[in-house]
Each structure stands twice: as C-alpha cells, then as structure tokens.
Amino acid sequence: MKNQSTKTIQKHEATDLPSALIDIPQLINGKKPAVFLDYDGCLSPIVKDPDKAVMTQEMRDTLQRLASVCSVAVVSGRDRANVEKLVQLDNLYYAGSHGFDISGPNNMHTEPGGASEAVPALDKAQKTLDERLKDVEGVLVERKRYAIAVHYRNVPDDQVSKVLQVTEGVIAEHPELKKGPGKKIMELKPNLDWHKGKAVRWLMNELDLNKPDIVPLYIGDDITDEDAFAELQGEGIGIMVGEHDDKTAAEYRLEDVTDVLAFLEALTQTIKSQQDV
Ligand SMILES: O=P(O)(O)OC[C@H]1O[C@H](O[C@H]2O[C@H](CO)[C@@H](O)[C@H](O)[C@H]2O)[C@H](O)[C@@H](O)[C@@H]1O
C-alpha cells in the first residue's frame, strides 16, 4: 500500500455511495475483517447532550458477537475512559481522544501519538475557556485527556459566532494546540501529526492485522473519520454513516445507527459462515 502522503485520495459525495448492506459476502470477498468503529453517530445517535449518547444493549450484544469472530476497535473523539464506560465490553480495543490514548484486552494501554506534552496547554486552555464562555447559554466545554471539545449545539444561533471566536482565540494563544472540526463542536487538540487514521494503522501493526487474508473496515460519520477512511483507501473498506459537511474518502455508506446495527449483525453471520466452509 502506498504511503498516505503519496497516495491520491478519491473523495465522493456520501449520497452517491452504494450501501454497504447490498452484498456483504462480496464486500469482504472471503477475507476476515478487522472492524474499526467510531462511537457518536455510528454506535449511538447524535443527541443534544453528550452524556445521553448511550449505546443500546442490542448494539452491545451485536458488538460482543462480532468481537468473538474478529478484532473490533472503537476509535473515538471521546475520552478513552468515557467511551469504554459507554460501550462496556472488555474484549474490544479503544482509541480515545481521537486516537491519542489506546487501550485493549490484557491491560494494553499506550499513548503512541505523544500527546502528554500537550497536557499543560490543554489545562490552561480549559481554564481560559471556562472563564471566557461562562456567560454563554447552552455552551459545554468537554475535557478529554488529550483534547477539549467546545460544544455549541445548544447555544442560541446569535451567540455561536462568539463561541467560535473565543475558542479560536484560545487556540491561537497555545502553539501546542490546534483546531479540529466536528459536528457542532470546535475542538482543541495537540498540535501533533496524529489522528484516527494513524491510530488505526498503529492498531493494525500492533495486532498483526497487516495480512493478505484480513480486510480492515472503518465505519464513521464525522470529519475526523476522514483520516481513517483515507488511511485505508485502496486497502480496506471505508463506510460513511449518514453525511457530514464535506465529501468523503469512504467507498460505501450506511444511513444511520439502525443500518450500522443491521450491517454488524449481517457481517458477523457472514464471517461465521465463511468459518464453517
Ligand atoms: O469520534 P466520535 O466517537 O464520533 O466522537 C466525536 C465527538 O462526539 C461527541 O460529540 C458529538 O456527539 C454528541 C452526542 O451525540 C453531540 O451532542 C455533539 O454535538 C457531537 O459533536 C463527543 O461529545 C465529543 O467529545 C467527540 O469528539
């Protein structure tokens, strides 16, 4: 596979992509998938309050069954400990804070992106944001170990530009941090060359998944998932859930979380029937 920096990434409108549900046996083509999943908008619908983005027991059971037949990782912008608590499955791998903080079975815990150096800047930025945004109705400053999400989904329209201006101003005060987009959030992230795509590649190497009989599959709904779609393009399968504001490097689509559930269930059955042959 070509190095990410030399590869030309093909992008499409999400609405032009074929559904990943059409023919799963053909999609994985006799290979064993390694499944990487985003959390918000993929395993749980987007809701107004991030604390209420709770995964259903049905989705948990489905993930559990899938993880019994192939490697499964949740690659999230959320804090790693938070997403682990939401998913509640100990046979999965978790990459939190957009891939900076990775854990897995057998006490695996590692931070391959080197984000700890950004913690002092994140701590200062959090205090400044809390202070400068304290009077804005509906704003939420969510601290993750290696990122801060400033949520404006519940901010009155006429105050959103103030939230964005204040947040950009705080980012400009900290060269250790950079801006990251998201669905009704602006994020402050370590200013390092690390993202979900690099975390997926790191996990594939670590778990010995770079094999001709394994196909990596990434499912996500947000701009931050584009790094993972791009990383796997030409080698794996990128599946976009719904749409975001830009074109996507994914090759297939699913409509929503209900479709994701149906896809994961059918994928598990396909893997099992391949094993039975
Ligand atoms: O990479 P993800 O697992 O998709 O995490 C991305 C962000 O998800 C959360 O925010 C988003 O979902 C919230 C709940 O549905 C919604 O209220 C918010 O508007 C969305 O942006 C999470 O709170 C963030 O920390 C993640 O970065």
TrEMBL record:
Q: What is the name of this protein?
A: Trehalose 6-phosphate phosphatase
State its Enzyme Commission number(s): 3.1.3.12
State the organism of origin.
Pontibacter diazotrophicus
Cofactor dependency: Mg(2+)
This chain's function reads: Removes the phosphate from trehalose 6-phosphate to produce free trehalose.
Name the domain of life this protein comes from: Bacteria
User: Which Pfam families does the record cross-reference, listed alphabetically?
Assistant: Trehalose_PPase
PANTHER family given in the database record: TREHALOSE 6-PHOSPHATE PHOSPHATASE (PTHR43768:SF3)
- Catalytic activity annotation: alpha,alpha-trehalose 6-phosphate + H2O = alpha,alpha-trehalose + phosphate
